[in-house]
Write a structure and sequence with these properties.
The protein is an alpha+beta fold and 288 residues long. It has nine helices and six strands, in the order ααβββαααββαβααα.
Length: 288
């Protein structure tokens, strides 16, 4: 039992005592944190395939747009215009006809669902410029697919949305570095997970500890019950020569302090008459 049980029988946590437990177990925190970081870094480096992004920029210039039987006007000063346009063009971008044309012209073996996961459109700072971003494990493939989308999408948008004028602002280029995964981010996440696991182990061990570590706990928790005596821990005591108990402690070695016994030869005539030989002899005489 320790200081985490109140007098009312309810479980409480002594934060000061728990902090002291954390200080005593700081080696466990350090070890599991380092292990978590190393495991996360190794997993990211050896098992996670790097991905690359390539983006093409498109510009939309519209005065009056008609979509089906509905017509509406968009001004360049309207901050919601770009979001509305990107939402419309994202649907067209992910349409089956556009993606199938990209698959056919590029010669890749992806399915429609896989290509949908690889491409996305996003407005640039609430302007009428939006980006088409393709993510792939091959940087050259990502660049090629992004440029194909940029060439095919304007024709599809013009055919569907009357009065739209979509132009290419910037073609996609081959990515010079990977976009994911981030070694630093994953390593930090692994270290954090290790730290959380170590903290959980320490807290659970603290809550499940039912050993009375000192007489202060009894006197503070049960002040109405007198403390009669305290049994000292002679095993862990520094003065190990005063005693032992339970058979688990090492018995004190007296050979170093006690003088060695000397062997003394006693003449036969001075030996005790009660030795074994005399006893037999005397016994015979008595019976005789």
């Amino acid at each position: 039992m320790n200081g985490n049980t109140a007098k009312t029988g309810e479980d409480t946590i002594d934060l000061v005592e728990l902090f002291g437990v954390f200080l005593k177990r700081i080696w466990l925190l350090v070890i599991l944190t380092v292990i978590g970081a190393v495991v996360a870094f190794g997993y990211t480096f050896f098992l996670v395939t790097p991905k690359y992004e390539s983006s093409a920029l498109m510009y939309v210039n519209n005065s009056d747009i008609s979509l089906g039987n509905t017509s509406f006007s968009i001004s360049s000063g309207d901050l919601t215009a770009a979001k509305s346009l990107v939402a419309t063009y994202s649907v067209i971008l992910e349409s089956r006809s556009v993606i199938n044309d990209v698959i056919r012209l590029s010669g890749v073996s992806y399915t429609y669902e896989e290509m949908t996961e690889m491409v996305e459109a996003e407005a640039i700072d609430n302007t009428e410029v939006f980006s088409i971003t393709v993510t792939s494990t091959d940087p050259v493939e990502a660049e090629m697919l992004a440029n194909l989308y940029a060439e095919i999408l304007p024709e599809k948008i013009t055919a569907i949305v009357n009065g739209s004028d979509v132009r290419i602002v910037d073609h996609a280029v081959v990515a010079a570095k990977r976009s994911s995964p981030s070694y630093t981010k994953n390593t930090a996440i692994g270290a954090l997970i290790g730290l959380v696991i170590a903290s959980a182990i320490i807290v659970i061990g603290y809550l499940l500890d039912d050993i009375i570590h000192s007489e202060d706990y009894i006197t503070e928790t049960y002040p109405d019950i007198p403390l009669l005596a305290v049994v000292p821990d002679l095993i862990n005591s520094r003065n190990n020569g005063y005693g032992y108990y339970g058979g688990s402690a090492r018995r004190p070695d007296r050979s170093a302090s006690a003088p060695a016994a000397r062997q003394v030869s006693v003449p036969a005539e001075q030996r005790s008459p009660f030795n074994v030989d005399n006893m037999h002899g005397s016994g015979g005489d008595s019976h005789g």
